[in-house]
Design a protein that fits this description.
By secondary structure, the protein is of the alpha/beta class. 39% of the residues lie in helices and 26% in strands. The chain is globular and about 50 Å long. It binds adenosine-5'-diphosphate and magnesium ion. Adenosine-5'-diphosphate binds next to β2 and α1. Adenosine-5'-diphosphate is lined by residues 11, 14, 16, 34, 36-42. One of its GO terms (molecular function) is ATP hydrolysis activity. Keywords: ATP-binding, CBS domain, Cell membrane, Membrane, Nucleotide-binding, Transport. Residues 2-236 form the ABC transporter domain.
């Protein structure tokens, strides 16, 4: 699905990502985890060209990412972030339908897709479709953000700490929903978090970052059974 080959990114004197190799296969749920400032968000943003790498190569579905126009690329990739960023003057329905409309889907198909996603995320359509973002709780806004990211049937779903700002109970509910959606749809998911419990619950594979490097990449049980070094075991040690 997506492959990083010796990819680096610098911001002035800061090396945010330092020569990483990363291969993400179709249908995987990959969690990028690590301390603050270790390069997780930069790595994710390079996938949809919000940032371009300055060394190495990224290949998406067999094509060099640099040859794909960012606007077209973003219609093929869902993106959800902690701050959600819903359009405040648009209803929930209009927000979720953004990408399908840009893709030129007929109105009835957009409508049906929005209804299906609201139901999937346990927001009763008759109750929520016509509301505006400021008429929703934080957890409900986050659900709408995830629904919007999924709406265009993306080839890959990218999420950057999507549940970071939520209370623990809502967070667990949304983690369960996300896991169910992944199991149902088989969509490839790449998610950034610094919450090790979230990573262990959701990931088919965990990629652990430290100072712009990948220190370990493997299935959750593999990391727990054979941490690559003290940094990994200390990090995993925070799991409850
Ligand atoms: P993480 O998501 O793991 O917390 P980031 O990828 O956001 O880390 O950041 C990695 C490093 O790159 C940090 O040192 C951060 O300060 C720096 N960085 C990230 N984005 C920018 C930017 N737009 N301008 C300057 N420095 C940045
Ligand atoms: Mg980040």
């Amino acid at each position: 699905m997506i492959e990083f080959q010796q990819v680096s990114k610098h911001f002035g004197d800061t090396t945010a990502v330092d020569g990483i190799d990363l291969h993400i296969g179709k249908g995987e749920f990959v969690v990028l985890i690590g301390p603050s400032g270790s390069g997780k968000s930069t790595t994710l943003r390079m996938m949809n060209r919000l940032i371009d790498c300055d060394a190495g190569r990224i290949v998406f579905q067999g094509q060099d990412l640099q040859t794909l126009p960012p606007q077209a690329l973003r219609l093929r990739m869902g993106y959800a972030i902690q701050s959600v960023g819903l359009f405040p003057h648009w209803t929930v329905e209009k927000n979720i339908g953004t990408v399908p409309r840009l893709l030129g889907w007929p109105a009835e198909r957009v409508h049906a897709r929005v209804q299906a996603l609201l139901t999937l995320l346990q927001l009763e359509p008759s109750q929520f479709a016509k509301r505006f973002p400021d008429e929703l709780s934080g957890g409900q806004q986050q659900r709408v953000g995830v629904a919007r990211a999924l709406a265009g049937e993306p080839e890959i779903l990218l999420m950057d700490e999507p549940f970071g700002a939520l209370d623990p109970v809502t967070r667990i509910v949304l983690q369960r929903e996300l896991k169910r959606i992944h199991q149902l749809s088989g969509t490839t998911v790449v998610m950034v978090t610094h919450d090790i419990d979230e990573a262990l619950f959701l990931a088919s594979r965990i990629v652990l970052f430290q100072d712009g490097h990948i220190v370990q990449d493997g299935a959750p049980l593999e990391l727990l059974a054979r941490p690559a070094n003290d940094f990994v075991s200390d990090f995993l040690g925070r799991a409850e």
